[in-house]
Design goal:
The complex is a heterodimer of chains A (487) and B (95).
Chain A lengths: L8 H10 L4 H19 L2 E4 L1 H16 L10 E5 L26 H8 L3 E6 L33 H8 L6 E5 L5 H7 L2 E4 L19 E6 L2 H11 L17 H5 L7 E5 L9 H16 L3 E5 L7 H16 L18 H12 L2 H14 L5 H24 L2 E5 L15 H5 L6 H6 L3 E9 L2 E9 L4 H14 L12
Parallel strand pairs in A: 2-3, 7-8, 7-9
Antiparallel strand pairs in A: 1-3, 4-6, 5-6, 5-10, 9-11, 10-11
Chain B lengths: L4 H10 L6 H18 L34 H4 L6 E2 L2 E2 L7
Antiparallel strand pairs in B: 1-2
Chain lengths: 487, 95
């Protein structure tokens, strides 16, 4: 019973199936780990021990009665951006410090119906705005590989929790790289599905034309299993697409013989740490040796990705976050003089610096006189970038490159310069702008810090990404490496 | 600096954000950096390019205009700071 935390979700499912251990025993073991180790990491905002043990008891009873859901008895963690009925949902913000969600997000509901056991809610950059987890109202998460370093963001809590073996999987969200960059920096696997693939009902909105829900695991097999439960049409999300969900697990084993991989030259320019680049090139060579072929693809507009994103995302955030007015829910300032003062002070007190900065950037680019020069222009450039991807996908099945420009950086190192921080997502943002699915797969180490391989696929072709990642993980064991202090 | 304090003050007002006096200097500096950075977009040739409306080039789905949600006002209002008789309370608007 000692090493339950070292097992993947798929291995734990087998253990539950064979009766080796019960969900209650498994859940207690994971809760004990969180209790012992989270003081060092700060990966969790809320631990829901009682609920988890009750859900585990129910899962065990369901199993005994022959009612065995796809995730029966398996422990997971939800990013604190997903609404969980009756449980505090903070989105990493003072604004929602006391918010008890009155309903469940669709994916929370679907995973619970499949029998999953929720251990708690993970820490994150405030409103998912950040790439280091340092913007969280609840303090930064620390990277299990080096506690002085950032686990990335915004899903840093989910990534750190999976890397430290608090749970085999955690949900996450990605607007510009928030699943993939923390996965890369913590040696985990993170998948952002196609825009519209997974319901966002009950997922607190940041930038609605970019946001998508996904999952962080250690193996591609686990991600396939979870995505099968999460994906699919939901009439409560008007942006959710009604496309059939393939059996991702069944398709994992398909050969990657003949798979064509595109390489974008600019992704290996001087902005990339040379050692990271070498690990990524090794990984691409390894995938070629499994039967894939790599060719260079031209993406002339890709260098505009980050500035395009930093117009579109703040614009949408300034609109989405206008709902926080101090009246219906969220932080409310005391002794306001009038309604205007109530709005301004509730928002001024409730939001942190980076969130305010993005709201103001968005307000500026949408304001009279600047709309055409910034917002309209960015939406045009966005079209050019999306077309670059579409053209590339006429020739190749996946585009491969680095997930992040460097391994995990030290906490405090980039926090004073927003542009340096924004450039962390230089390789991941393109997939969001075009709505494409993408995954980060652990592919080695630089100075004992993990490096991620980034794969982008065509719309609704998550299977190609998972298949490629799975084949690579069958041939390598980077995803099995565990930070020393959390073995 | 591409933005000055007056402009930032105006943006903050539009965004309904009260900034502390100590927050202005930093906001002017950092917002100016961001604006300078996104100004690179002006170098892109977008002649005859249609602005992107949706990542998947599909139209927004519509649903029939029928009531589907149950009334859960009391439950939802548990998160509000000030409520009376099912109404949200705010500072006096009309004298």
């Amino acid at each position: 019973m000692m090493d339950l935390h070292t097992k993947t979700l798929t291995e734990l499912a087998a253990g539950l199936d064979s009766g080796e251990f019960s969900s209650v025993e498994l859940t207690q073991a994971m809760l004990d780990r969180i209790a012992a180790h989270d003081e060092a990491l700060n990966a969790m905002v809320t631990v829901t021990g009682e609920n988890a043990l009750a859900a585990a008891g129910k899962a065990d009873a369901d199993r005994a009665a022959g009612n065995i859901g796809a995730l029966n008895g398996l422990p997971i963690i939800h990013k604190d951006i997903f609404c969980t009925r009756g449980v505090r949902t903070t989105c990493g913000s003072k604004m929602l410090d006391n918010f008890i969600s009155p309903y469940d997000a669709t994916i929370v509901e679907r995973m619970a119906n499949a029998g999953a056991v929720v251990l708690g809610k993970s820490n994150m950059d405030e409103f998912a705005m950040g790439s280091s987890n340092e913007t969280s109202y609840f303090g930064p998460v620390r990277n299990p590989w080096d506690l002085e370093r950032s686990p990335g963001g915004s899903s840093g809590g989910s990534a750190a929790a999976v890397a430290a073996r608090f749970a085999p999987a955690a949900t996450a969200t990605d607007t510009g790289g928030s699943i993939r960059q923390p996965a890369a920096l913590t040696g985990t696997l993170g998948i952002k599905p196609t825009y519209g693939r997974v319901s966002r009902y009950g997922m607190i909105a940041f930038a609605s034309s970019l946001d998508q829900a996904g999952v962080i695991t250690r193996s591609a097999e686990d991600a396939a299993r979870l995505l099968g439960v999460m994906a699919g049409f939901d009439e409560r999300d008007s942006t959710c697409i009604d496309e059939p969900v393939p059996n991702y697990v069944a398709e994992l084993g398909d050969s990657i013989e003949g798979l064509k991989i595109g390489i974008v030259r600019q992704h290996f320019d001087e902005g990339l740490d040379a050692d990271c680049g070498a690990r990524v090139k090794d990984a691409i060579a390894a995938i070629e040796s499994l039967g894939a072929t790599a060719v260079e693809v031209d993406m002339p507009n890709i260098d505009y990705s980050v500035p395009t994103y930093y117009v579109v995302a703040p614009a949408e955030c300034s609109s989405n976050l206008s709902r926080f007015d101090g009246v219906r829910f969220g932080h409310r300032a005391e002794n306001a003089e009038d309604l205007f003062d109530l709005y301004c002070r509730s928002r001024g007190e409730g939001f942190g610096d980076e969130v305010k900065r993005r709201i103001m950037t968005g307000t500026y680019v949408l304001s009279a006189g600047y709309y055409d020069a910034y917002y309209l222009k960015a939406q045009q450039v966005r079209h050019l970038i999306a077309d670059d991807f579409k053209k590339a996908f006429e020739e190749v099945d996946v585009i491969a490159g680095p997930t992040a420009p460097s391994p995990a950086f030290k906490l405090g190192d980039k926090v004073d310069d927003p542009i340096t921080m924004y450039l962390n997502d230089i390789y991941t943002i393109g997939a969001n702008l075009g709505g494409f699915p993408a995954v980060s797969v652990p592919c080695g180490f630089v100075n004992d810090l993990p490096v991620g391989l980034h794969l982008v696929g065509h719309h609704f072709d998550e299977s190609a990404l998972l298949r490629c990642a799975h084949a690579y993980q069958q041939a390598t064991d980077w995803h099995r490496a565990c930070p020393e202090d959390f073995a | 600096m591409s933005l000055d304090k007056d402009q930032v003050q105006q943006i903050a007002t539009l965004a309904r954000l009260k900034l502390g006096d100590d927050e202005y200097a930093e906001s002017v500096e950092k917002l100016s950096k961001i604006v300078d950075f996104v100004d690179h977009l002006s170098e892109a040739d977008t002649t005859d390019v249609v602005p992107m409306a949706h990542p998947l080039d599909v139209a927004q789905r519509l649903r029939p205009d029928v009531v589907t949600e149950p009334n859960e006002r009391d439950h939802y209002q548990e998160n509000a700071s000030f409520v009376t008789d099912g109404l949200y309370l705010v500072p006096k608007v009309i004298e």
